[in-house]
């Protein structure tokens, strides 16, 4: 049986056309016309005002944090249920994270805990430098109360929308609400350039400065002149061509992922102890990944047994992100709550969710999960 992957790349065919143009023009470099077009088209699709194409989502978050003034000794409040890339750039800048728990309705940052933490910091006379909210697995966090809390204390909000391209919050794209938003085009995301990212903001000066920092911080001069430390973070013109071909089919990719979810929900939803990640009332979940929790007492097997049963049949499934406050590398930092995220990690499993998944692939997954339940009870 051929391997079923969690979330493999899915090319549209258009990518090669754009890459062909790159080769025909010999513009094999970072920057170039494909990069400019990719940024413009990304703004058109997401409603972002300004966009900067970068080598990764992590690079985008690093620039967003640095430009928000995060430096040595500064606190940043961040969702605990996420991938480590949401947190690492805080450390790059010498800051430190404080982890905020999830709320059950979206699995994303709990707005009440955020507001309480900001209030406590204000009382203590030292506010965090920034808040990083993560939009997990294709679903937006509850941005309205999160933005209200940030505005109240004048703390800039950065949105990690790496997993949420194609989602909506009250009809708009998460990632375009805060001071800055970041997206990822890593190989497993809903669209991919093999590797890449995007930084967006409504603030032109912010994006202009990020563009300069990402290009080795060259000052405008005919020779090489530098007045600050920069990075080599720009996206290759070749990869931007891939990105344009992918962006053109984003909506189809969302529909395919949502169809995967609908199938799994219909075929597994009746099993005792199985609960799917909810779709919160404020917007559209892309179902980038179909994620469910398994109550072992009711189901008859725990999520690890299900994962291993799938793996034995050459099917890749993954546990939900292990929360940052439980990671050895971040053990020294404070967590506000953490029980919700910890239980989602304990019971949560991501099923194969690629937009190229076939009916036969999905049926194989369902059959193995159902068989394990029947064996267990
Ligand atoms: C993938 C991901 C990132 C990092 O993006 P890269 O392009 O791989 O650097 C950041 N945050 C979250 C939540 C992600 O899933």
CATH C-level name of the largest domain: Alpha Beta
Instruction: Give me the side-by-side strand order of the main sheet.
Output: 1-7-6-5-4-2-3-11
Classify the helix fraction into a percent range: 25-40%
Strand content: 5-15%
**Biggest beta sheet summary:** 8 strands, mixed
> What average pLDDT do the residues reach?
97
N/C terminus separation: 27 Å
Count all strands and give the number: 12
The number of helical elements comes to: 13
CATH topology of the largest domain: Aspartate Aminotransferase, domain 2
Q: Give the CA-based shape.
A: globular
Q: Encode the helix/strand succession as letters.
A: HHEHEHEHEHEEEHHHEEHHEEHEH
Radius of gyration: 21 Å
- The overall number of domains is 2
Low-confidence stretches: none
Can you list the ligands bound to this structure?
A: pyridoxal-5'-phosphate
CATH-scheme architecture of the largest domain: 3-Layer(aba) Sandwich
Q: Which structural class matches the secondary elements?
A: alpha/beta
Fourth CATH level, the homologous superfamily of the largest domain: Type I PLP-dependent aspartate aminotransferase-like (Major domain)
Short overview:
The chain contains 13 helices and 12 strands. It has 377 residues and is α/β, with parallel strands linked by helices.
Question: Could you characterize the architecture of this molecule?
Answer:
The chain is an alpha/beta fold and 377 residues long. The chain has helices spanning 14-25, 33-46, 57-67, 88-92, 111-124, 143-153, 204-214, 237-247, 250-268, 296-299, 303-312, 339-347, 359-376; strands at 50-54, 75-79, 96-100, 130-134, 157-160, 180-184, 197-201, 274-276, 290-294, 318-319, 335-336, 348-351. It has an 8-stranded mixed beta sheet with strand order 1-7-6-5-4-2-3-11, with helices on both faces. The longest helix has 19 residues, at 250-268. The two termini are 27 Å apart. The structure holds pyridoxal-5'-phosphate.
